[in-house]
From TrEMBL:
It comes from Mucilaginibacter frigoritolerans. Residues 1-19 form the signal peptide. It comes from the Bacteria. PROSITE patterns: PROKAR_LIPOPROTEIN. Keywords: Signal. This is DUF5689 domain-containing protein.
């Protein structure tokens, strides 16, 4: 198996993706499902594809979500094997999500499991938000996702909308809201949806197990550090520093594109607590 360096994502359906940051993922002792109402109404907001500036070679999408202007950089990626047709709700992955309005508003991006790019936004208001509550809900979701894959991915996978609320508030200062990026049949075909927006029915596919290697992108502080990742059923749950037994925390997914080519995306938490994200396409054989 050849070693792979972090590279720009080769185009999937003529599309690729970029990421900006990721938050440290903590393990939760137990997964608790939040209370759900019997009648659930879901919605999304179309993002506008902005004109490219001179010399710009990437797409920019903008829109307003929960009163905050959100910018998404593309091109974007999705699992073409599971969602070969354009329908509302197809989850996007590996995107860069940000806001450029004021120092009292910002985006914390989270790359999750079946729901794709999920994020939390924060803006200054008279009533405040609680990132700790959001992180706790997210930890519960990751724990449920781990339990699902530990059980050989049988049954219906846990969805993030069953664990993460639409918004979080506590003390004055900030309000925290959540959303996720999806494909839609309207507008630019890119939208922000509420956290519980349902996933469309995925095509039944068999994703082969695989191992692959990536190099740490920070070759100044982590020169010659490579990571061995182990994937099964579309999820990479185990990773070590190459040629050692040192385990690193990983949250990652992958899909098989055919002809020996795989797409891998996710986040690695280094042993010192720092992290980096990756989104690559490669033939690991």
């Amino acid at each position: 198996m050849k070693k792979t360096t972090i590279i720009a994502l080769a185009m999937l359906l003529g599309l690729s993706a970029c990421k900006k940051d990721a938050s440290t993922i903590n393990q939760a002792p137990s997964a608790q499902v939040k209370a759900r109402s019997l009648v659930v109404s879901h919605n999304y907001v179309d993002l506008t594809l902005m004109p490219r500036a001179a010399g710009q070679n990437y797409d920019t999408y903008q829109g307003v979500w929960q009163g905050l202007q959100v910018t998404v950089l593309g091109p974007l990626s999705w699992n073409i094997q599971q969602y070969p047709t354009l329908v509302n709700g197809v989850p996007l992955v590996g995107a860069s999500v940000s806001t450029s309005i004021g120092s009292d508003s910002y985006i914390s991006e989270q790359n999750s499991g079946p729901d794709g790019n999920v994020f939390a936004g924060s803006e200054g208001v008279l009533e405040g938000g609680n990132y700790a509550q959001f992180q706790a809900s997210l930890d519960n979701y990751y724990q449920a996702l781990d339990n699902y894959f530990d059980a050989n991915a049988s049954g219906t996978p846990p969805l993030i909308g069953d664990y993460v609320n639409t918004s979080y508030s506590s003390v004055p200062g900030f309000v925290v809201f959540t959303g996720k990026l999806i494909r839609v049949t309207t507008g630019s075909n890119v939208a922000i949806a509420d956290i519980g927006y349902p996933l469309p029915t995925a095509s039944t596919t068999t994703i082969p197990s695989t191992n692959f290697y990536i190099s740490d992108p920070d070759q100044v502080h982590y020169a010659s550090v490579n990571y061995a990742l182990y994937g099964s059923n579309g999820v990479c749950k185990n990773a070590t520093i190459e040629n050692s037994s040192t385990v690193v925390v990983i949250s990652a997914s992958y899909t098989y594109l055919g002809n020996g080519i795989f797409q891998f995306w996710g986040t690695i938490i280094r042993t010192d607590g720092t992290s980096f994200s990756f989104n690559i396409t490669d033939n690991p054989s």
